[in-house]
Description:
This protein is mainly α. The protein has helices at 3-17, 23-26, 28-32, 36-39, 57-69, 77-81, 86-97. It contains seven helices and no strands.
Amino acid sequence: xxxxxxxxxxxxxxxxxxxxxxxxxAGGAIIAAQCNxxxxxxGASKGAAPALKGRPAPYLSQSxxxxxxxxxxxxxxxxIAKGYSDAELDNVAKYYSGLK
Length: 100
């Protein structure tokens, strides 16, 4: 098992053990695990959704905030992004930008 898979599993387990911890507090890996269906494991999409792995955090963060505000239109990202605070979106962006 890779270190990143183990880290994601441990982060998710910590949320179950401590429900007072928010996704923003726990880091972007928690939220990013929910993105795997469209963007691929660790953001390495080979499908229609864009790959996120290694992209600059400011770009990713602004892109998600643009979906959230409605500035950018999408098929489902507008609805998904509205469910997260700006801090949570920033953490997801940092997570994906740190993957190489």
